[in-house]
Task: inverse folding
């Protein structure tokens, strides 16, 4: 997926997370996904006691490493190359550089048409 295809509202955030140093500060140090991301993506406010339960598996900087790895492994703008190549292979593209363009029939619109 190209950065232009990524939802505009999340581009700046995900670019920052994918930036070495900045992403570590946001996710590992500031616990952004649990403290701000989760409460900001639900329809009703999360009770502080419930947020504590979500945060429990991630008490330290090192325990939050998977929360950083997930957005960094998303194949956006041709990076990371291994993820782009894997995505291209699953969608029948021969060259990883083609993965910047959406394969026909893999988008949300086509999924809606199939259901």
Result:
């Amino acid at each position: 997926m190209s950065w232009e295809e990524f939802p505009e509202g999340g581009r700046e955030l995900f670019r920052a997370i994918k930036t070495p140093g900045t992403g570590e500060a946001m996710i590992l140090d500031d616990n952004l996904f649990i403290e701000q991301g989760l409460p900001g993506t639900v329809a009703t406010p999360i009770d502080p006691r419930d947020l504590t339960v979500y945060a429990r598996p991630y008490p330290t900087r090192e325990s939050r490493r998977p929360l950083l790895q997930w957005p960094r492994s998303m194949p956006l703008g041709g990076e990371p190359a291994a993820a782009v190549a894997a995505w291209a292979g699953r969608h029948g593209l021969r060259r990883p550089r083609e993965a910047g363009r959406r394969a026909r029939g893999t988008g949300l619109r086509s999924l809606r048409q199939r259901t």
About this structure: The first helix runs from residue 8 to 18. Residues 96-115 have pLDDT under 50 and may be disordered.
